[in-house]
Design a protein that fits this description.
Elements (H helix, E strand, L loop, with lengths): L2 H13 L2 H8 L3 H15 L4 E3 L4 E3 L1 H29 L3 E7 L2 H17 L3 E7 L7 H4 L5 E5 L7 E10 L1 E6 L20 E4 L4 H7 L10 E4 L2 H9 L5 E4 L1 H5 L5 E5 L6 E8 L5 H13 L5
Parallel strand pairs: 3-4, 3-5, 8-9
Antiparallel strand pairs: 1-2, 5-12, 6-12, 7-10, 7-11
Helix pairs in contact: 1-2, 1-3, 2-3, 5-10
C-alpha cells in the first residue's frame, strides 16, 4: 500500500475539496485525483462521490477513514514521542483561547509552564468562535483552550481546566429582564442568537431545549454583532457568566440559569500534533487549574 495514497485519502476525507487537499499536500489537483483513483482501484470500490459542486465520502469511504485514522494518529504520535525524546522539551508552543476568561487562564498556565520548562516559549493568540478548529487543523496552533464539547475525529480533547456558569443574555427591556434568574422553560418562544459556524452537536449541547422541543436559532457573524442583536431585542443568547464581567452593557441583562450545568473549558490539540511540549503544557494546566475559577 502506498503511504501517499493513504495520506491523500485522509486529507481529502477531512477537507472534501480537491483544491484544499492539494494545497495541504503540496501536490497538484491532478496528482491528488490520480492517487485517489489508484486507491479506489486497489480497494475495488469508490471512496468518494464527486459532483461539480461537492465531494462526499461514500459509506465505504467513511468506514475506511474511521478505521484508518486511529492507526495514523498512533504512528504520528509515536514518531513525535521519539523525536521529543531525542531533542528534549524545547521550542515554541502556540496556544489559542476562545474567551477572555480562557485567555487569562492560558496566561497563568503559561507562566507556570515557563518556570518548569525555561527552554520553551509560549505564544498566545485568540481563536475566533466562527472557526474554532481551523487554526488547529492548519497547524497555526498547537493547542487551544475552548468550550466543550469537541467531537472531531482528528482532534483530541484533554481534561476540563475550568468551568463557568451558564447565563441568559436578554435586552434591558425584555420580559425576563427583571428576574433574578431563569430556567430552561423560559426559553419557550424565544429565538436564541449564536455565532455562525459552530457545529450542530455543539449547539445541541450548549443551548438547552425547553419541554416543547422548540429552539429557533439565529446566527451572528461575531460576538459584538450577537450582543447588538440581543440589545435590539432580536433574540436572547445563552452564554457563559464571564460575559457579564467582560461585556457589560447598559442595554443587556445577564440572568443565571437555575437548572443548567456550567460550561466546561478544556485543551484541544491535533491527534497528529501530540508532542512532549503539548503533553507537558496539558499537565501544567491540570496542576494549576485550581487557580482558575
Amino acid at each position: 500500500m502506498d503511504w501517499q495514497e493513504l495520506e491523500a485519502f485522509r486529507i481529502l476525507a477531512q477537507e472534501l475539496h480537491f483544491g484544499r487537499t492539494a494545497e495541504r499536500l503540496h501536490l497538484s489537483r491532478g496528482r491528488v485525483s490520480q492517487l485517489i483513483k489508484t486507491l479506489e482501484h486497489r480497494i475495488g470500490a469508490p471512496l468518494f462521490d464527486r459532483t461539480s459542486r461537492r465531494v462526499s465520502l461514500t459509506p465505504i469511504g467513511r468506514r475506511l477513514f474511521a478505521d484508518l485514522e486511529p492507526h495514523h494518529l498512533g504512528i504520528v504520535a509515536s514518531l513525535a514521542r521519539a523525536t521529543d525524546a531525542a531533542r528534549g522539551i524545547g521550542g515554541t508552543l502556540v496556544v489559542g483561547f476562545s474567551s477572555p476568561l480562557a485567555g487569562e487562564a492560558i496566561l497563568r498556565i503559561a507562566d507556570a509552564f515557563r518556570t518548569d520548562h525555561p527552554d520553551c516559549e509560549v505564544v498566545v493568540c485568540e481563536v475566533q468562535l466562527s472557526d474554532r478548529y481551523g487554526p488547529l487543523r492548519a497547524g497555526d496552533l498547537d493547542l487551544a483552550l475552548i468550550e466543550f464539547p469537541v467531537d472531531e475525529p482528528d482532534l483530541v480533547s484533554g481534561p476540563a481546566i475550568f468551568f463557568d456558569q451558564r447565563v441568559l443574555a436578554v435586552s434591558a427591556g425584555h420580559r425576563l429582564a427583571d428576574r433574578d434568574a431563569v430556567s430552561v422553560e423560559d426559553l419557550k418562544g424565544e429565538t436564541s442568537i449564536t455565532i455562525a459556524g459552530l457545529p450542530q452537536y455543539f449547539l445541541d449541547a450548549f443551548i438547552p431545549s425547553p419541554s416543547d422541543g422548540t429552539r429557533p436559532i439565529e446566527a451572528a457573524t461575531s460576538w459584538q454583532e450577537l450582543l447588538t442583536l440581543v440589545a435590539a431585542d432580536r433574540g436572547v443568547a445563552v452564554c457563559a457568566a464571564q460575559g457579564a464581567d467582560y461585556y457589560a452593557r447598559p442595554t443587556i441583562t445577564y440572568l443565571p440559569f437555575t437548572d443548567t450545568a456550567p460550561v466546561a473549558y478544556g485543551l484541544v490539540w491535533r491527534g497528529s500534533g501530540e508532542t512532549a511540549m503539548v503533553r507537558a503544557f496539558t499537565q501544567t494546566a491540570v496542576a494549576t487549574s485550581k487557580t482558575v475559577r
